[in-house]
User: Fold this.
Amino acid sequence: AGEVKDFDARQYMDPKAVRIYPRGTQFACAAYVMAWEDAGKPRFDTCRTDVIIGAAQISFDAVEEGVGKSPDALKTYDMRLNPASLLKTTISVSAAAVAGLAQVDGHVLTISSACTSGIDAIALAADRIRSGLSSAAVCGGVDTVVTKLVLNAFCRAGMLCTRNDTAAVAPFDERHTKG
Assistant:
């Protein structure tokens, strides 16, 4: 697992949006801003520009945060639960946020096809441009799976190495699934 440390989303988006959006959406918005600036800040045809984002999972960081603030909400109605936390778990929130930043109203879509979600988003964007359905597309993939819940599940499934020595990164080693 790779963790992004010292990330300040306020460099790329409004502080209110930072409070509202989950970490994955903040990453997607930052990536959009950096790519847009690298491309020379192009203007988009607002109605013919798509935003297609691939995401394999909901924002488990937001789920863990919500449960941490309101642990009883898993069992019964809990007045402490913030209803805005539902927005943070919606898999389509990154595409919608990027479309808002790009100020486009074209086709806004999230693709979820496991590990290939990002590349599938790029392929669909290319197909839509090639077929004339859109003139441009903002596309890519985003996930934030470095959470206690997700890492625990991946380790238990044998999908991550649990050895922490220098030889731990060995995905094709026969010992890979052995802790």
Notes: The beta strands are 49-54, 108-111, 136-141. The first helix runs from residue 15 to 20. DSSP finds seven helices and three strands in the chain.
